[in-house]
Amino acid sequence: MKEAEVRIDVDLLDSFVYDVFRGMGVPADDARICTDVLLSADKRGIDTHGIARLKSIYYDRVVHHRTQNPITRIDTVQDRAATAVLDGNNGMGMVIAHRAMELAMRKARQHGLGMVAVRNSNHYGIAAYYVLMACRQDMIGLTGTNARPSVAPTHGVENLLGTNPLVFGIPTDEPFPFTNDYAPSIVQRGKIEHYARQRKPLPEGWVIDRNGRYVTDPEVVLHALGEGNAALLPVGGRGEQFGGHKGYGFLTVVELLAACLSQGAFLEQLSGAVQGRRVPHRIGHFFLAVDISFLTDPEDFKKRAGDILRRLRNSAKAPGAQRIYTCGEKEHLAWQERRRSGIPLLPQTRSEMITMRDELGLNHRFPFEG
Ligand SMILES: NC(=O)c1ccc[n+]([C@@H]2O[C@H](COP(=O)([O-])OP(=O)(O)OC[C@H]3O[C@@H](n4cnc5c(N)ncnc54)[C@H](O)[C@@H]3O)[C@@H](O)[C@H]2O)c1
User: Which of 268, 270, 349, 352 has the least CB density, counted as fewest CB within 10 Å?
Assistant: First the structure.
């Protein structure tokens, strides 16, 4: 029998996650940022990047593996009028990214454009978070980040490229901005983990092994990715027939910009392991903010942007299709629903929450414990 879905109220989850970050040794203001970024994924319906990832991507790395610093000390490597380079010194990726985007926006407000590149950071969560910061101030935001080596180049089988999202935030006159918040691979690693948590096989076509054959067992894939024996495929899939080389191109753009502007690490250097020993991931990011008022009237811009998106959504639908969406819309709808009905929690996530609580000696009692 299928287990009934378990949900938790957003505010309850927020206070727990904040206490976990504090318990990990993250200072109060930074813990607020980390909590906000992490839970923005759950609020927006991105179940692969929220509470389900708290233990494996942040807590374990800080508390158990000791490969990431809970206290973030950022060095400024370079600071000019409209540009800067920061070194995150292996601190909390979300805090580093938040500060970098704030800096890019400050520069954009003064000069029209601001760009900040970052090295030696860690996983920064959902890319949309940072471009939404820009949109709230009538700016266009762009960000990219490299990530653990996961994706093979077109015609290759080695998992060299990260799932490198390249994400724009574009303000509109609607209640939500345009955000194309995704990886240029068919799926990102979090989706494979999500399938593993649900013990569901992957569709054929997402992942190949060293012989170019499709692999569909998510547990096998997660292990093989770590060993370099499996690779995700770029958007467009294997080969060139369906445009796989185009997904590959976007992934490479991000790898180039995230590493080269900041003199940072790249490709397999981001695996987080050297000869089987866990080491920092040395992730690189970049952030661009454009103050729309330097180019045009922001109200006119937002109205035109809204008109474009509305025309797309109201265009003729394919047979059988119920609805046409634009980027950012599903996340907006997810939040309208989840603010009332709460955040769904899979069994593995619930047991990880209990583990973190008990290890940190926190006194939260979860509604799902009865
Ligand atoms: N930090 C990292 O290293 C890293 C790496 C990869 C991905 N990510 C994050 O993972 C998250 C999930 O990425 P993903 O690749 O699984 O995303 P996804 O495949 O679920 O795509 C989500 C995006 O597609 C849009 N969308 C969905 N259906 C649509 C439709 N029918 N029409 C128009 N737009 C539609 C959504 O609005 C959203 O912008 C993102 O938040 C991304 O930033 C982070």
Answer: 268
DSSP-assigned letters across all residues of 29-51: HHHHHHHHHHHHHHHTT-TTSSH
Residues with C-beta less than 6 Å from any ligand 1 atom: 46, 48-49, 123-128, 145, 147, 163, 165, 167, 179-183, 187-188, 190-191, 325-331
Distance CA 204, CA 154 (A): 17
State in Å: Cα 13 to ligand 1 middle.
23
| Global confidence as pTM | 0.97
Domain 190-232 has CATH 3.30.60: yes
Q: From ligand 1's centre to the CA of 179, what distance in Å? A: 9
Answer yes or no: are the C-beta atoms of 153 and 305 closer than 8 Å.
Answer: no
CA 166, 169, 170, 172 torsion-angle sign: positive
1-66+341-370: CATH topology is: Hypothetical Oxidoreductase Yiak; Chain: A, domain 1 (1.10.1530)
* Other CB atoms within 10 Å distance of the CB of residue 54: 24
**Sequence-separated (6 or more) residues with CB below 8 Å from residue 64:** none
What's the gap in Å between 298 CA and the centre of ligand 1?
26
Phi, psi (rounded to 5 degrees) for 84? -155, 155
* Pairing verdict, β 166-170 and 343-345: unpaired
Query: What average pLDDT does the segment 92-105 reach?
Result: 98
- Nearest-angstrom CA–CA distance, 145 and 270: 11
Q: What tens digit of pLDDT does each residue of 233-278 get?
A: 999 999 999 999 999 999 999 999 999 999 999 999 999 999 999 9
Q: Look at the block and give the residue holding tokens 């593993």.
A: 196
Domains of the chain, by residue range, sit at 1-66+341-370, 72-186+235-327, 190-232
